[in-house]
Write a structure and sequence with these properties.
Structural class of chain A: mainly alpha
CATH architecture of chain B: 3-Layer(aba) Sandwich
CATH class of chain B: Alpha Beta
Structural class of chain B: alpha/beta
Strand order of the largest sheet of chain B: 6-7-8-3-9-10
Order of helices and strands of chain A: HHHHEEEHHHHEHHH
Strand content of chain B: 25-35%
Helix content of chain A: over 70%
Radius of gyration of chain A: 19 Å
Oligomer: heterodimer
Helix content of chain B: 25-40%
Number of strands of chain A: 4
Shape of chain B: globular
Number of helices of chain B: 10
Number of helices of chain A: 11
Shape of chain A: globular
Chain lengths: 292, 235
Amino acid sequence: MEFLSYLISGISLGSVYAIIALGYTMVYGIAKMLNFAHGDVIMVGGYISFCATTYLGLPAVVSILLAMAVCTVLGIVIEGLAYKPLRAAPSLAVLITAIGVSYLLQNSALLIWGAAAKSYTPIISGTLQLFGGKLSIQYISILTVIVCLVIMAGLTLFTSKSKMGKAMRACSEDKGAAQLMGINVNQTISVTFAIGSALAAVAGVLLCSYSPSLMPTTGSMPGIKAFTAAVFGGIGSIPGAFLGGILLGVIEALAKAYISMQLANAIVFAVLIVVLLVKPTGLLGKKVMEKV
Amino acid sequence: MELLKVDNINVYYGSIHAIKDVSFTVNEGEVVTLIGANGAGKSTILNTVSGLLRSKTGTVDFLGQSINHVPPHKIVAMGMAHCPEGRRVFLQMSVRDNLEMGAYTQPNSGVDEDIEKIYKLFPRLKERYKQVAGTLSGGEQQMLAMGRAMMSHPKLLMLDEPSMGLAPLLVEQIFDIIRELHAQGTTILLVEQNASMALEVADRAYVLETGRVTMSGTGKEVAESPAVKAAYLGG
């Protein structure tokens, strides 16, 4: 029973990682860049939701929608101002810019909201008691897993069925050829950032509902872990991000429970190193097919 | 009527002067070919026409309008399709999805019907419509690339080395399809290393050497010129 409860908390934590990892992997797939500011968009989403509920007295659902809207705009603005001018630049320049944007967001949050931790009110509280109280599951855990599954299914449908989604796949494979199809590559990249950032807002709200202390650096560690999850599952692959996120969450929860609280993160990253040594493209990473 | 008018373009890769003062025209309904050896600049010219590269001088007019500063995706919407060198089909997408991408600028309503037309032209694609393009043979990928380009109802179809790397029988097939498209009224700008096949189907031809047009004329005139015979047609 104890194991089951650790497993469930691992899966729900992993669901948050998966939602964040989807943002990393989609942006990487299409823009071939690692958006290290992604984690900080999560933090902004958390703050927006916090302000909406605390200062404006809005209901939780509205605060989530507001956070998604703000983060969507933020994602498009970041892409347009910081990354788009560097489209032809070496990837290292883009990477450093992303780190710069990350610090910019953290320090802006520091200016606006201060360094002291804000206490976030979980969007849903209470626990579900099963087996006569032997197994208790927080409602937020259940909600997180459901949200993650819905997002995953939605994105899979979007990329496999819709015209825009297919155009994204085309751009991620060959931008030149995509342009020759009449696809506006810049617009497609903007849409990808918009979707990734909206997901980051959702992740921010869920994350803050788990660990209610909200600080300007709140997004950093989950961001890095979700990036790890994306690489773990095979960066660029949507099912890979999902699988990587869940596995990472479960490994982290079990390591915390059975091995060591302090070493949990080290174990998570050690597993990543082993996976990459055995399968450098990640669990579901695609091999690049050679042209015949 | 002049569909495409390229006037005095100069294209550079960094400090390399790849295309030097090139001018040519393509009239409505014609098949025009650019022939020349490897590295003569044929693909560079097509890439400049479709907007992937830009010329430092001169103009590219399409349908009587300058497209020097029009982004590539808008040029496609104007009615130009460029089937690039090396096919560049989307290897991880299905045959059908590839064709749908070709129709990106078209209204959704006619896409199914257009795909059926492409399947008629290339029955092999119909057999494999669910397969991922990466699993197709080279010839099938070329058919897919041409079919995909046709999906945008182009007024001008540019084909870059459609015969490259294909077995002789398949080359024949590809050229049969070029003839068929021509008969249906499609205007085609064809870039080829296989000069003899290209000159056979072409109304007019331009010969390129190290970035310059060195000769032009009807397909027949160019094919009969001693210099071209010696250089490209094996004496």
